[in-house]
Amino acid sequence: MDVTISGNPIQSNPDATASGWAKITAGIFLLGWVFFVSCSEQTGSLLQKANEEWVQGRNHSAIEMFNEVLKKYPSGAQAEESLFRLGEIHHFSLNNSTRALIYFQEVLQMNRKGPFSYPAQKYIAEIAEFGLKDYDQAIIEYQNLINRYKNENESSDHQYRIASIYYKKQNYEQALVELNILLENYPGSSWAEETKFKIIEILYTLSRCPEAREQYRHFNLEYSDSRFKEDIDFVVASCLEEEGHLQEAYNQFKALEGRYFYPGILKMKLVGIEKRIKKQP
Questions:
Q1: Of the residues 117, 135, 153, the one at which a domain ends
Q2: Distance (Å, rounded) from C-alpha 189 to C-alpha 205?
């Protein structure tokens, strides 16, 4: 095909035409990419600004910005972070744990394998236990943490929380089971010493004093300088008193004078045992 310009015929060049279209296509792609990057940068900048607003204590401004990010990006990494931050703001800054719970649950629904999944699940468990006092649900949520996220140090923390909740519920038998699970599954846990002390305490509560005293013997061999020394001595002395070994109990209580944290209770124990000893034939 020939094109006439100002009366002069010019023969078209197919190669030149193809080259021109390639340049146009490349230009359109470049413009689209610049627009995409520009939008991403704006949203990323907005997310950063929202985080800065929260750090500065401007909670409502931060909420507006995080919601704006969610409008532009209802899914993906930025949405996950925005939902998680909204949960934190309502939990820590606005004391609205119920609303925070909804945001953390949305994080899990969006991506259970994302970077905010574990901390969101952890907040859910803590809100259930400490905020809502829903102990049965808290046990489920802590168990979810153990089952879904394999982290030995963290898992031992969650196992200890489960045992503690059963103790709060006065289900001492199950608390004992859960504490023994902790020792079996996480023998190197930082909770091991306290767990063994709690086991002795629960055994006394369940009137299983021979077992408590046997555990006490092992405990002293393993933790000769334990921070629970005075507490555990008091528990075992109480076991001896309950079993009728009054003089032995009295001697152990007496040895705690000047060391036990509650001297008034200790004095009551000593006076009570003295009266019982005097009544003995």
A1: 135
A2: 25
